[in-house]
């Protein structure tokens, strides 16, 4: 018994014992040499499965992005690590090869995979594919999609530009207060803000006329026309100044040859002194002929006294600031006027 114990002690080799490594491998006695490798291998397998599970809680908008790469790589490392561990454990166990077909199969597989190295070569190749090749493929797919989208967007913007490049379209733009506000900002930079201010105040005058018409109708229905004089036109005017709006006048048709009501004349006179009269604060650059016609009529103005001047100012805005506006607001125009419908 003592002799057997001594024999076993002699057979048991320490990791630090000096011996012929190549001979030990050939005699299938070098198992201790790979013990540290096995420990780290098991640790890395556990780390891989932990990473695999943890990554499921990570959000990634890209289907084949970093999350996909890490999950699949961790899974492959774990699976191939288990397979390699089973192979190593099987082929390093003593036994009769000829009588154990199951072990013979593992040995053949071990030999076919070049000692399990091919398994990790597959993992390395997969890592290179997902980290280099796949992103390159995705880049070209995204580039192709982007080019197609850019082309479609360019065609859409071109159609928008062509549609809104007409003077009729510009008049529609002038009916939208938000667009008029943007035109004013452009005009400030182009040193022609007086044209937009002229347009805004012209619309206010038309709204004033419309309000007088509405209040007169109400007074007539009540049987006392003089009630219209009690209406606060100054308050209405200030409201129009503060909250510029075009919706009232858009649905209002008027006779341009009618005389301006006495209650509205001060606002016409103020408009004339602001935009038409020589050396006025915001004089618009309209033709001399139109200026003279307005000067001769301003004493007893008609409702449409400024209509011809308005047309010329609109032409100036159309030719000067509207092209700049189109370049900056194509998409907004399309959304506002529903070109896709």
TrEMBL record:
Residues 169-327 form the RGS domain. It comes from the Eukaryota. The chain crosses the membrane at residues 33-58, 70-91, 118-141. InterPro entries: RGS, RGS_sf, RGS_subdomain_2. Keywords: Membrane, Transmembrane, Transmembrane helix. This is RGS domain-containing protein. It comes from Neocallimastix californiae. The lineage of its organism: Eukaryota, Fungi, Fungi incertae sedis, Chytridiomycota, Chytridiomycota incertae sedis.
């Amino acid at each position: 018994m003592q002799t057997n114990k001594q024999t076993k002690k002699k057979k048991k080799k320490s990791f630090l014992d000096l011996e012929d490594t190549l001979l030990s491998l050939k005699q299938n006695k070098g198992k201790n040499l790979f013990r540290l490798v096995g420990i780290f291998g098991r640790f890395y397998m556990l780390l891989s499965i932990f990473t695999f599970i943890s990554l499921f809680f990570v959000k990634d908008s890209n289907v084949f992005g970093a999350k996909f790469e890490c999950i699949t790589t961790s899974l492959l490392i774990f699976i191939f690590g288990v397979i390699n561990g089973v192979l190593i454990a099987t082929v390093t166990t003593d036994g009769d090869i000829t009588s154990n077909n199951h072990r013979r199969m593992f040995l053949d597989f071990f030999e076919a995979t070049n000692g399990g190295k091919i398994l990790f070569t597959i993992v390395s190749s997969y890592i290179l594919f997902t980290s280099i090749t796949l992103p390159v493929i995705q880049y070209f797919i995204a580039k192709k999609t982007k080019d197609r989208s850019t082309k479609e967007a360019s065609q859409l913007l071109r159609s928008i530009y062509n549609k809104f490049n007409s003077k009729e379209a510009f008049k529609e733009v002038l009916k939208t207060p938000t667009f008029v506000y943007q035109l004013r900002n452009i005009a400030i930079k182009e040193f022609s803000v007086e044209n937009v201010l002229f347009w805004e105040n012209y619309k206010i005058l038309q709204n004033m006329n419309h309000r007088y018409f509405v209040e007169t109708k109400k007074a007539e229905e009540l049987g006392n026309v003089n009630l219209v004089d009690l209406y606060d036109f100054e308050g209405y005017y200030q409201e129009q100044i503060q909250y510029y709006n075009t919706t009232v006048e858009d649905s209002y048709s008027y006779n341009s040859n009618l005389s301006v009501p006495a209650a509205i004349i001060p606002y016409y006179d103020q408009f004339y002194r602001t935009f038409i009269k020589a050396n006025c604060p915001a004089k618009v650059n309209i033709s001399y002929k139109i200026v003279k016609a307005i000067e001769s009529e301003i004493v007893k103005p008609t409702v449409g006294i400024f209509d011809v001047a308005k047309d010329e100012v609109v032409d100036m805005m159309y030719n000067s600031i509207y092209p700049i506006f189109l370049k900056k607001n194509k998409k907004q125009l399309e959304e506002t006027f529903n070109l896709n419908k």
